[in-house]
Each structure stands twice: as structure tokens, then as C-alpha cells.
Fold:
Amino acid sequence: MDIFIGILIFIGTFCAMEFMAWFTHKYVMHGFLWSLHKDHHKKDHDSWFERNDTFFIFYAVVSMSLIMLGNSTDFWYGWPLGLGILAYGIAYFFVHDIFIHQRFKLLRNANNWYAKGVRRAHKMHHKHLGKEEGECFGMLFVPFKYFKK
Structure:
């Protein structure tokens, strides 16, 4: 029974991270921590590392902390919570950094309707270089208006 509950927690955490990504992006990245996120919209340096990558580090620390908490205490829920955050982070990294922004030259030839829709939606977000008016959405639940056949 604990395994079943753990799987449900993992899946629920993964799905909840889509909301957290949207919320963090809209209210934190385009809000009070714009100073860390703005180089993602307008690159003002020659480094491969962006100040925006700080957000990945934050969620990695949260994920690792939950896993370690689950490992060293009776709070076994830390494992599926931490692994759900980790799985979402990996998925987000592949979709956002590798597929969309091509930080690594992989997945360049993906041109199905979903791939085109995700790219189109992200391009609309990056059309705004400033803090305001950047339409925010998650990674998996992209508005259907961006999907054209």
C-alpha cells in the first residue's frame, strides 16, 4: 500500500510542479526576482551559464533535501516528493533548455504538431523582452491556440 501511495505522491508532485513552474515564472521570475531572470530574455553576457539557472539550483536543493529527509527520518514521503520534483526538473530541462532553446544541439529536427506548438508558444513569450506582458504558461499544459496543424 505504501508503494501505491508513493506512486500517487510522485505523480501528484510532478503535476503540481507544472503549476509551480507557471506560478514561479509569472510572479517570481517576472516579479521580484526579475534581476535573475531577465538575462534569459535578453542575453547580456558571454557566459553559457545564465543568472536564470539559479532557479534550477533552487529546485534541485529542494528536491535533494526532501530525498535526504526521507532517507534519514521517518518522513518517507520525502522520497516521492523529492523524486517528483526531480522528474519534473529533468523533463523541464529537456523541453525548455534542450528542445526549445537548443543549449545543447539535440532534438533540432522534431517538427510534429506538438513540437511546433510548444516552440510557437515559447516564442510568443520571448517576444516581450521586458518584465511586463510576458505571457506565462507551463511546460506541459500549453494553451491550445498555439497548436496548428
Notes: Helices lie at 2-32, 34-41, 54-72, 78-100, 113-126. The mean pLDDT is 79. The radius of gyration is 17 Å.
